Each structure stands twice: as C-alpha cells, then as structure tokens.
Amino acid sequence: MRGNGQQQLDVFSYIGSEERVPQDHPLRSLRVMTDEALQQLQPRFNNLYAKIGRPSIAPEKLLRAFLLQALYSVRSERMLLEQLDYNLLFRWFVGLIFCTIDHAHRDAARTNGFCQHCVALKGKSVD
C-alpha cells in the first residue's frame, strides 16, 4: 500500500536536546569548556549591562554563536541567524529552545538587533 505523500507540518518531539546530540560529538567537550569560561566571566558581564531596561540577548549566547560562526566558517551574521533558526546542533550549543521560536526575538535580531548587541559586546572590555 502506498503511503500518504502529504507533508507533515507539525513535528512532535519527545526527545530532549541532550539526547539529540551524540555523546561523542566534538562540540560536547567544547561546550563544557565554553560553559566554564563563560561562568568565570559572569561577574564581568553583569557589570557591562544596565540593571534596568529591556533585556538584551545574553552575552553568553552571542559568544557561543560567534564561536560556532568561526568553527563552521559561517560567512555572515545573516547566515548565522539562519543556521540558528533551523540547525539543531547550533541551537543546542548556543542554548536555544528546540521546539519554540520566539518570533519577536528572532525578528528583532534580524533587524540589526543581533548586530547591535554584537557591536556593543565587541566594543566593551571584559578584562
């Protein structure tokens, strides 16, 4: 009997993000090292940002995304955002939720929000 050729638009996943990434994947060990380094920078990040106002994109997520951009030779921030939108490995490494897309956050990032946060973070010293 021939199967149904209709595309499945919704996907239900009962597998968590940790189970999707193989245990021996090279990014697992890199993520551990990255998390440790970013944990040490936490107090410095807290000093860089205002205590009031609209929350920004977390600097930890920005730095993880930049690391992936360098490792995977992603040519531009626009392409990086595209990868973060659908690449499950990238989403896992950066710390984004798999099953939901925050359209407001994504659209703000696409309309220079991501770039502005990047410039702001790059322009500050965390010495």
Please name the defining characteristics of this protein.
61% helix; mainly alpha; 6 helices; 127 residues
Number of helices: 6
Classify the helix fraction into a percent range: 55-70%
String of helices and strands: HHHHHH
* Distance between the first and last residues' Cα: 66 Å
Please report which band the strand proportion falls in: under 5%, 5-15%, 15-25%, 25-35%, 35-45% or over 45%: under 5%
Number of strands: 0
Major β-sheet annotation: none
What low-confidence regions span 5 or more consecutive residues with pLDDT below 50? Answer: none
Give the topology.
Elements lengths: L16 H4 L5 H23 L10 H13 L5 H10 L1 H7 L8 H20 L5
Task: Report on the architecture of this protein.
With 127 residues, this protein is mainly alpha-helical. Helices cover 61% and strands 0% of the residues. It has six helices and no strands. It is globular and about 55 Å long. The relative contact order is 0.13.
In short:
This protein has helices at residues 17-20, 26-48, 59-71, 77-86, 88-94, 103-122. Helices cover 61% and strands 0% of the residues.
